[in-house]
Amino acid sequence: MKLYVTPMSPYARLARIMVIEKGLGDRVEVIQAKTRTAGSPYYQINPSGRVPYLVTDDGVGMEDSPLICAYLDSLDGKPRFHHPSRETDWAYRRVEASARSLCDGITVWTREMARPERERSPTVLAHEVARMQRLADLFETLVSDPLLQGAPTMAHLILTVALDVALTRGPGSLTASRPQLADWHRRMSELPSLRAVTPL
């Protein structure tokens, strides 16, 4: 299989973490895609140009990190991060959706900041920073919930990746004034898969 990524995409990082967690390093070739470039050969592989993008052993391509992570998790018939019982576990799914919303907002902020300064929207930047702060406040209380304790789930991975992006490429630490979230993030950051796929 071939997994197309870019080094700065948090969504591609999630897929790469899943490759490690599921012991698929010998089955998945990780390839750096050239995106946001006119005429990139990558567009012949994935017309949308988004990452991550997985090409399976039978040549079928798929994009979108939730789909790719679920597929990789299922290959051994023993999904750990996408257990069927969670499909109707609405409490868990709300937590995962909130973690994804945080990651999405940080990504919007980083993309806006990558634009030339005169083209940036102060309104968009302010909106996303405010959203990050509200969600970080929410997670300061949620991390003590049993849903975010115990064995890692996709919600754990998404939240950790989001906090890493905020710190390394976003507006800054979302854990500095939130001790419970900071402690949770420190513990999650010790996972070998997260250490192996470091944020850029």
Q: How would you describe this protein?
A:
This protein is of the alpha+beta class. It has 8 helices and 4 strands, in the order βαβαββαααααα. The protein has helices at 10-21, 42-45, 65-74, 90-114, 122-142, 154-168, 179-188, 192-196; strands at residues 2-5, 29-32, 53-55, 61-63. It has a 4-stranded mixed sheet with strand order 2-1-3-4, covered by helices on one side. The longest helix is centred in the middle third of the chain and has 25 residues, at 90-114. It is globular. The mean pLDDT is 96.
List the helices and strands and how they pair.
Blueprint: E1 2-5, H1 10-21, E2 29-32, H2 42-45, E3 53-55, E4 61-63, H3 65-74, H4 90-114, H5 122-142, H6 154-168, H7 179-188, H8 192-196
Parallel strand pairs: 1-2
Antiparallel strand pairs: 1-3, 3-4
Helix pairs in contact: 1-3, 1-6, 4-5, 4-6, 5-7
Structural class: alpha+beta
Quote the beta fraction. Answer: 5-15%
The helix/strand order is EHEHEEHHHHHH
Please mark out the parts with pLDDT under 50 across 5 or more consecutive residues, or reply none. Answer: none
Q: Tally the helices.
A: 8
**Outline, from the CA principal axes?**
globular
Features:
200 residues; alpha+beta; 4 strands
Q: Could you provide a short overview of the structure?
A:
By secondary structure, the protein is an alpha+beta fold. The protein is 51% helix and 7% strand.
